[in-house]
Amino acid sequence: MGSTADKYSQRTRHGQWMKPVGQPDLASIIIPTYNRASLLGEAVASAAGQTYRPLEIVVVDDGSTDNTPEVIRHWQEQLKSDPRISVRYFHQPNSGVGSARNRGLIESHGDFIQFLDSDDILNPQKLSLHIACLQQHPECGYVFSDRTRADNPNKWVQISVINATVMDSAEFYCSRQVWLTMVGVYRRRTCYEAGPYSEDMNLGEDEEFNLRVLLANSRLVYLPGNLCAVGIHSGPRLTDAHKGQSGLIHSVRMYRRMTESAASAGRLNDARLVSSLARCLTNDIIGALEAGCPDLADDAIKICRTLPIEPGRRLRLAIYQIFNSLPTGTFRRFWPFWLKFRHAAFEIPIRKTFRRRNVWKMGKRSA
Questions:
Q1: How far apart are CA 338 and CA 321, in angstroms?
Q2: What pTM does this model have?
C-alpha cells in the first residue's frame, strides 16, 4: 500500500492520495464546484434524492467567491436529521477541477464512488442500480449507463439490472460513452489503482482518467438507459472550450497523456488500445490540417509515431506530414482526392465528410 500511495501522493497538490479501503456499503458522491451557487443546489438535491443509503455527499469548493457556502449550509441543515446521509464541505484555493476531484477522493470514505459536476443531475435510482450491478459482478470495478439532457421530459425511464451486461473494457477505449465521469460508479479500489486525476489538465481529464480505469479493469458492467443528465444553462461550461483551435489543443494534449499512461502501464502491446489511440490522433491530425494549424498537426503526428502502429498507418502519417509542409489550405483543397487515393491504396471505405465544428465530433470522420 505504501509505495503505491506514495507514488500517487506526489501527483496531487494535496501531497497525499486516497485510502484504498473505504467504509463497507457507503457510497460517496463527489461534487467539485466553482462559483456555481445558482446551479449547485439542484445538483446536491439530485444527490440527496438518491434512494441508496448509506450515502455521503462530498462538496469540494475550488475557491468560489459567491454564496456557495450558504447553499451547502442549507443542505446540511435540511439533512441533519437523517443519520444515513451526510453533506461534507471542503474549501481550497482555486486549483482546477482535477485537483478538486482528487481532494474529494482523498476526503471520501465510501466503498463506492460517484462523481457529479455541479451543473448536472442524477437519476434518483442511479446509485441503487449501479451498486446492485457491482454487487452482482464482483469481478468488475466499474459500471456505467447512458446520459441525456436535463431538459429531456422523458429522461428517466424505468431501468432494470436484469439488462446489465458484463463487457470487455477494451470495447470502450477512447469512447465517448465513458467520457464523462458521472455516467458510472466506481469501486473505491478502482479509483485508488487508476491514480489521481491529472491536475494540469482542465479539459479531457475525465477521458484520461477513465482510460486508466479501463486499463486497470479488464471487465466492466454496462446498464442501458439514462441515469444522469447534463445540465442546460447559459453560464460558462468547460465543454465550451471543446470548439475550434482551442479544442484541438486540448485534444492533442489529452491523447498525448493517454499515450503516456498506456506506455507507463505497459499496455502498448494491446492492439485495440493502440488502434483506438492512433485513430483519435489521426482525427486530430486531419482537424489540424484543415484548420491550418501546422504545429498541432506536427505534434499529433509525432505522438502517433510513438505507437507500434501498422505500416499502412505509418505511410499515411508520412503523407500527412508532407501535406503539413505545404501552404495552409492545401490539404483542404486536396481532401476529396486524398479520400479516393486512400480508398484505392488502403482499401479504406470512403465516408461522407464534413467540416470540423468541434473536436469531439471528429470520431465520425474516417481516419
A1: 13
A2: 0.88
